[in-house]
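Dear colleague,

Thank you for sharing your sequence with our group. We've completed the structure prediction you requested, and as agreed, I am returning the results in plain text so they can be pasted directly into your records. Please verify that the sequence below matches your submission; if there's any discrepancy, let me know and we will rerun it promptly.
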Amino acid sequence: MKRILFFVMGLVITVTAHAQSAQLDADAKYAQQLLKAGEQAPDFKMKTLEGKTFKFAKQTKGKYVLLDFWASWCPDCRKDMPNIQRMAQKFAPMGVEFIGISMDTDREKWKEAVEKYGIQYTQVSELVKFQDTQIASLYGVKWIPSMYLIGPDGKVVLGTVLSDKMERTLTELFAPKGQTYGTQERVSIDGAKGKLTAIIQKPILKQGEQCPMVVLCHGFGGRKDGPMFELIADSLANHGIASVRFDFNGHGESEGEFQQMTVPNEIEDAKHVIEYVRDLRYVSKVAIAGHSQGGVVASMTAGELGSEDIAAVALMAPAAVLRDDAIRGTVMGQQQQGDPADPPEYINLWGLKLGRDYILTAQRLPIYRTAMRYQGPAFILHGTADRLVPYTYGERFNDIWPKSEYVELEGFDHGFGQNIYRATELVSSWLIRTLK
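Please find the predicted structure tokens below.
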């Protein structure tokens, strides 16, 4: 979603999202000739791997259908197969029929690949060269892997070469509408620079029952609201875990001036929130998670409090690059005038005043040295196409934490815009496994 920048986070994500998404979206290059949403999906009949005749319109009438164009000889298809398999396992029980359309010419190699990947859904092929197949011509497929989602009315919902975009579309299509898991309560918590506005979301508990609590820390310029933390909070509540998401000082609905915001006082905010929720009678233990600058805050807060007080840490694209950028005197990818050691009173960023203290404190932040004092379980998620924070900064957290798990999402940007559902599911699932 973005370009290489300096202060990394929520507001930056919003402003630069469209530019980098367009840059990274392979559909702009490889899906131009695919059928468009709303077009009627052409009917076809083809032989299955078992030699039976598959009639598309007749056998899929009234269903959602995912057509996956692939081949055993295609490296990108093999790389993408785990994504397709995961989608089939998740969405087939919801009524989506998966059809694999192979561009193979060799039946045995096709069969070997199906067996290797344990594919259970229907497979069909013309067993002729890709460019000579009627099906590729009918559907405008010039590149594999390509896939279509066809609706119950037989019309195209989506044509794409990106499995993550397909998964995102399916997730949104089948997501429960207007459902909130557990209960929500708005609270006010004393922070480093005034009152912090927070939302506590917790599962339905029996009298006297306790549950874990996860503190969610947003990034620079961000706020507690938005799909990333809302999806995580819903998933946690649905599995018996509470969460609190809050606006840091100078952000959202919380008190304080943005110009006075620094990473150290955000760490103090996080500590105040942890102290508040730890005193709630139904909280058994506390974990912390953060995105971008919030990931830096989460890691350093865990390091200062230690494994005795923090049960688990999850970081999403942790922005430890902010220290190096501050030393270089870089702001939003542009070199600033003057001495980085003597910055002006503030820098204007899209109408927000980023204060001198933020820059000076960032230059001396002992991010990894502080974070490494935490020795409990940790999870780090980073995208390989993150232009704001190179994934090597996430890798280093994995190096300093012996009990950590590191996951890279190929081609994902700083805000995980390629498939926010996939990213939040990975974080939520890890927290659920670790805390329950």
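Summary note from our side: The CA atoms of residues 7 and 242 lie 30 Å apart.

Kind regards,
the structure core
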